[in-house]
Structure formats: C-alpha cells, structure tokens
Design goal:
mainly beta
Length: 138
C-alpha cells in the first residue's frame, strides 16, 4: 500500500513532463516588427502546396503592431493580391490579431525567433488553417 503514493507521484511527474518537451519562444512586440513571407500552409490537417501566386503573400508589421497582410487568390490563371489591415499584439508565446470580419477569426503564436504561425478559423465550418511565416527583414 505504501508503494501506491510513490507510483502515483511517478505517474504525475511523467505525465506532466510530456508537454515540457516543447520549446516555447516568448516573443515581444518588437519580434513581430518587419516583413514576413509565407513558408507553409496546412488546411484542416492537410499540407497545401504553395504555388507561385501564394509565394507573393507577405505580412508587414510596423513597431506599433499595425499590419498589412497581402493575401493571394488565383482566379482564371491570374494572381490577385488583396491587402488586409490588421493589428498584431504580442502576448508572450502567442499574439492576438485584431481584424474585423464576420467570417474568419485569426490568432497567432511565436514558434521560434524569426518564425510565426498564423491560425485562421473560418466561422462557417470551423475549418482551421495554419500558415507558417518566416521573417525576412525589418
């Protein structure tokens, strides 16, 4: 019976340490400032190929968090770029993205220095897109 508390403590220790393997980069507002380019897209758990049109997508963030997100859409073999104005606000390992939309919600997280993930959730079907961006310059 005395071994039960020891086993329970070992189980709790091992269980809690599973999440500790992940390195979390705690970013600051200044870590968001600059130009970011698209590296990868995962739509609902499926990796999407980045074509020449999507390679033009960028996020430019100024030192106050104001951002312009150039998104792309291929229509009739022509790449159409659209600018979205957003606000990026650093919150330790995550960041909030303020954007007024009835159909989509965005938030993000710092993965490592020079790499962020933007998570977009489409409200109509709760489909989640995870886009990885890498830093190119200030």
């Amino acid at each position: 019976m005395k071994k039960l508390p020891i086993l329970l403590i070992c189980f709790i220790f091992l269980y809690c340490n599973k999440d500790d393997d992940t390195i979390i980069f705690e970013g600051k507002q200044s870590d968001l400032t600059g130009v970011w380019v698209l590296k990868s897209i995962n739509l609902g758990g499926v990796d999407i190929e980045i074509d020449d049109c999507r390679m033009q997508e960028t996020i430019t963030v100024d030192n106050t968090g104001n951002a312009v997100w150039k998104t792309s859409e291929l229509i009739k073999k022509r790449c159409n770029l659209t600018d979205k104005k957003l606000k990026f606000i650093a919150l330790n390992s995550n960041f909030r993205i303020e954007y007024k939309s009835e159909t989509i919600k965005h938030h993000g997280k710092f993965l490592e220095p020079g790499m962020i993930e933007v998570i977009s959730i489409f409200k109509s079907d709760e489909l989640e897109t995870k886009s990885i961006y890498v830093f190119i310059n200030k």
